[in-house]
Amino acid sequence: MSFHDYVIWCDRPGCSQRAVFKIASRWSDGLVDELKTYSLCCADCLDDRLLLARSKQAQARLAAGETLDPPAVYRLKRGARDRELERL
Ligand SMILES: [Zn+2]
Q1: What is the pTM of this model?
Q2: How far is the CA of 65 from the centre of ligand 1 (A)?
Q3: Domain extent listing, the chain
Q4: What's the CA-to-centroid distance between 30 and ligand 1, angstroms?
């Protein structure tokens, strides 16, 4: 399987559509920051998955100095790195 054939599927159980959005929060410990991914989903499941991501983010336990932003929606782009994704 080549990289270009790679398909990302929506992660809501029972859904069989391709994922087009990534729901993620920016996490930082003051030195490093990265996106913590909650979900990869299709347009139909976006509201559902965003609600779930918000509740997970709200329950996250953070160590001193760590920050975790509220979940944001990014448009998935094949081969793009997190920093290159378009935030919606
Ligand atoms: Zn879906």
Answers
A1: 0.87
A2: 35
A3: 3-87
A4: 34
Backbone φ/ψ region at 30: left (φ over 0), alpha (ψ -120 to 50), beta = left
Instruction: For residue 76, give both structure tokens.
Output: 């998935």
Tens-digit pLDDT profile for residues 55-77? 999 999 999 999 999 999 999 98
Å from CA of 8 to ligand 1 middle: 11
Distance 11 CA to ligand 1 centre (A): 7
Q: Which residues, 6 or more positions from 5, have their beta carbon under 8 angstroms from its beta carbon?
A: none
- As a 3-state breakdown, the chain gives helix, strand, coil percent values, each rounded to 5, of 25, 30, 45
The dihedral built from the CA positions of residue 49, 51, 57 and 60, taken in this order, carries a sign that is: negative
Task: Report the C-alpha gap between 88 and 12 in whole angstroms.
Answer: 20
